[in-house]
Each structure stands twice: as C-alpha cells, then as structure tokens.
Amino acid sequence: MSDDGGTRTRCADRADAAVIARIHLDSRAATMPYLPPPKRGHEEVTRWVRDVLLKRCRVWVAVRDAEIAGYAALDGDLLDHLYLRPDLRRQGIGTLLLDEVRRHSPDGVTLHVFQQNTDARAFYAHHGFTVVDTDDGRRNMENLPDMTLRWTPDTAR
C-alpha cells in the first residue's frame, strides 16, 4: 500500500468489480474518442472484471476519500490496464498506481498503447518507458495501430 497524502492504493477484490468496470468504460469513452462504441455494457464488463481480470491479474485500486479513483492490472510483467476516473486525471493518481505496479515488477514492465493515445504515450514517456515495437492493429480487438512500451529499472540494465 502506498499513499500520496490523500490517495492510497490497495489490492482490488470482487466487491470492487462494478466500480472498476465503470471506471474502465468511462475512461475509455472520455480519453479515447476514436475507439468504436463499446460492444459490452456495464454488467458484462463487471462480470469480466470479476471473473477474468481479478483472477488473471494482480489488480490494485487507488482510493481517495473512500472512493475508487482508478485501477491498474498487471499480468506477469504486462501492464494490461491503467485507467482513472476522467474527472480525476492529472492529479498524481496514475503515477501512484504505476509506482505500485513497478514495485511488483522488479525486472521491468511492458505495455501496449494505441498510437493515437498521445496523452498516455506522454505519461509513460515521462515515467521512463520507451517504444520497443509498433503494430498496425492486427494484435488488438479494436484493430487500431498500437505500440509496445517497456520500462526497465536502472538496476536491471
């Protein structure tokens, strides 16, 4: 658990699934308007969070004033998801979650980001991630060009 004064991280549990699903849907809609409309509604995404994401990944939530503000999901050394409530962006919450992920990934972290997602790309570049690969979209369900980014701690280089 870490804390930035008003926000702390903790491991997510099944009771968090509906809130994580809402953050997932709301964040994608607000920050990635180029994505096609979601094919799955809140109930289906909640089931996916509860039955797939929480079982496959290590998931942390950032909590501010007793409310979940964002989440991060780590699958091995792959940062599968990092999403924040749209109204709480640029307040250090993403950094807090990313720091938690990196603490649990001593050999480094890999992630995929859409090439169009310039805000996310800038965020990860600011935190030391570099581009290791690009793709034309064949490897993601949205069929949009993406990039693979990698962060390796100085001690592991």
From TrEMBL:
Keywords: Acyltransferase, Transferase. PROSITE patterns: GNAT. GO terms for molecular function: acyltransferase activity, transferring groups other than amino-acyl groups. The keyword Transferase applies. The keyword Acyltransferase applies. It comes from the Bacteria. It holds the Pfam family Acetyltransf_7. Residues 7-150 form the N-acetyltransferase domain. This is GNAT family N-acetyltransferase. It comes from Streptomyces tagetis.
